């Protein structure tokens, strides 16, 4: 049985999202039908809109969906009609990375998350005239009132979860917190630098506080963001526009930080935070750099430092999202403070406010 949906459709690079009535396919045996309650807006959606990532147009984006299960496929185990879920990235489950428990590095990641098709190549959406529309963006395409997701990327939320703001746990928030808690495995009592204090960096700062890091240094160029970072756990802030980032971090840490994470993607910032770390430090790169960006290898040679390019905070969403939600419900991970709610139809306003820095994490509420 197909499902009518209202969706925001992107027809090409630099086009606006248009609201259209589409038809969602019947679910397959390993899928669930989710009534979307709300969906976060992430830079990756905007990267497709701006042509920085490939898009299978016409395309329904949206990859931080949350909602309630309305139908479960015949082969689905562990999910039931009525369950509240957050949808995360898709991974195949059968490649070498997935089998090693590293699904953020799934060998089929691009096809399953960006190509607009299910794993078997079929498409989930059609317009009113029967023309095919690409869906399955990050295995969900949740800029729509209903979504088909593979059961393995629908994460059941613990009782009492605020479903309406849970979608961003599936991407931006788990990326920030996971980079600290999983990729860098920051131990208690350590020093951490987080460069860039948007949704991902601020989630990293909250993660560092959860980890018990005792020196948490936020770096940005916007004072309001840095003040916000302090409220969420940063012990020190550096405005890299006005201050010497390396000198200040050396001074705060007495010789260099043990861990660092970049969410700016800016080569100069990455070079600065590598320089500002101590011997043997571990540094994670999360922000998407401009093509062709370079850093000086002299920053790394004979330093004992490790630089890792992390995806989705090395998260296993099925276990990590409930862990983050448990921390939230215990008052230790206040990700709700990052969220600004918008009506679904106000997606352009949400995009504008995200671009201007007015909103840290815009979440679109379905009618
Ligand atoms: N690797 C992954 O798995 C993954 C997942 C989600 C998002 N991302 C990427 O992470 C990045 C951050 O996402 P976000 O949503 O937090 O973005 P954001 O734009 O909200 O935050 C970036 C922050 O960096 C700051 N910044 C920019 N230039 C700077 C500079 N020169 N010096 C210091 N600070 C500077 C900005 O002021 C802003 O506060 C994006 O590139 C996004 O595409 C990666
Ligand atoms: Zn994302
Ligand atoms: Zn895989």
Word description of this protein:
- The chain is α/β, with parallel strands linked by helices and about 375 residues long.
- It folds into two domains: about 5-170 and about 335-365, Medium-chain alcohol dehydrogenases, catalytic domain (Quinone Oxidoreductase, Chain A, domain 1, Alpha-Beta Complex); about 175-315, 3-Layer(aba) Sandwich (Rossmann fold), CATH 3.40.50.
- Helices cover about 25% and strands about 25% of the residues.
- It contains ten helices and 18 strands.
- The strands form three sheets. Strands 3, 5, 6, 9, 10, 17 and 18 form a seven-stranded mixed β-sheet that branches.
- The longest helix is centred in the middle third of the chain and has 13 residues, at about 200-210.
- It binds nicotinamide-adenine-dinucleotide and zinc ion (ZN) (2 copies).
- Nicotinamide-adenine-dinucleotide binds near residues 44, 175, 198, 221 and 288.
Question: Which key phrases capture this entry?
Answer:
367 residues, Quinone Oxidoreductase, Chain A, domain 1, 10 helices, 18 strands, 25% helix, 26% strand, binds nicotinamide-adenine-dinucleotide
What's a concise summary of this model?
The protein has 10 helices and 18 strands.
